[in-house]
Amino acid sequence: MSWIQLTIRTEQDRAEAIGDSLSELGAQAVTFVDAKDTPVYEPKPGEVHYWPNTEVIGLFDAEDDTDIVIAALQNDFGQQQPLAYTLNPLEDKDWEREWMDNFHPIQFGKRLWICPSWRDIPDPDAVNVMLDPGVAFGTGTHPTTALCLRWLDSLDLTDKTVVDFGCGSGILGIAALKLGAKRVIGIDIDPQALEASQANAERNGVGDQIELYLPENQPQFEADVVVANILAGPLRELQSVITDYCHPVGVLALSGILVEQAEEIEQLYARDFILEPVQTEGDWAMVSGFKK
């Protein structure tokens, strides 16, 4: 099948309404793309934030009459100023194969590899975590996850208990277990994340070493290692909760932080931790240290 891609450049307050209209007008898929490489700061649960300059992209069957689609959109959204749009044909491809070809085994630190299932393992003697890209829960490709994976690889985790706060896909907790930890406690507000973590842990042969909880159901405990790859807002709001997870002389890593937010997070956690130099990758930072 051949496709036509209709791209509309707009402002954040109209992006969702235009996306809804594209769906109603027959778009097979609608996506939202940052038009100016602008970071979006953390939303609260249930919120959806768009970029100040957003491209709304609708994918249509090439046989659809896009003139009708554009006329309808101009009538609804372009009365004061005509909508800026482009139309581009897309070649017919095996999109699933194209998507799979973009994911390769990635090494983090000296020992650890994250490997998708359809690729050969580069080093059978390394610590290999098998994890396929899923629905946004984390696969190691984002700098915040990469910073945490390299940090875990640098530790001696033998027989340690680890808290993975905001566990998502379970990638950090599973990596910790494969690196020698004896027990991981994963916590997330999303029940689907807990299901993904359990499935991925079982696939990697460590399902019986991971315990998963919603925040309201978690027991009291202290851990040797705490890693929280979430966002600056929750790290601020839950500072006392996250600190209490870590027992004296335990170690902590906090990520999901933009570089310009790192100093504030450092100041909050310096009350209870001896902090190491901030590590960065691109626009993102990780704060880590030892509990006093």
Automatic annotation (TrEMBL):
Gene from which this protein is expressed: prmA
Query: Which residues make up the binding site for S-adenosyl-L-methionine?
Result: 145, 166, 188, 229
Query: Taxonomic lineage per UniProt?
Result: Bacteria, Pseudomonadati, Pseudomonadota, Gammaproteobacteria, Alteromonadales
Protein known as: Ribosomal protein L11 methyltransferase
Classification via Pfam families: PrmA
EC nos = 2.1.1.-
InterPro entries (UniProt xref): Ribosomal_L11_MeTrfase_PrmA, Ribosomal_PrmA_MeTrfase, SAM-dependent_MTases_sf
Briefly, what is this protein's role?
Methylates ribosomal protein L11.
Q: Does the keyword Transferase apply?
A: yes
Q: Which GO terms describe its biological process?
A: methylation
Cell location: Cytoplasm
Q: Does the keyword Methyltransferase apply?
A: yes
The reaction(s) this protein catalyses:
L-lysyl-[protein] + 3 S-adenosyl-L-methionine = N(6),N(6),N(6)-trimethyl-L-lysyl-[protein] + 3 S-adenosyl-L-homocysteine + 3 H(+)
Q: What is its main location?
A: cytoplasm
Instruction: Name the Gene3D superfamilies on file.
Output: Vaccinia Virus protein VP39
Membership in a protein family: Belongs to the methyltransferase superfamily. PrmA family.
One of the record's GO cellular component terms: cytosol
Recorded GO molecular functions are: protein-lysine N-methyltransferase activity
What CDD domains does its record include?
A: AdoMet_MTases (cd02440)
Keyword terms: Cytoplasm, Methyltransferase, Ribonucleoprotein, Ribosomal protein, S-adenosyl-L-methionine, Transferase
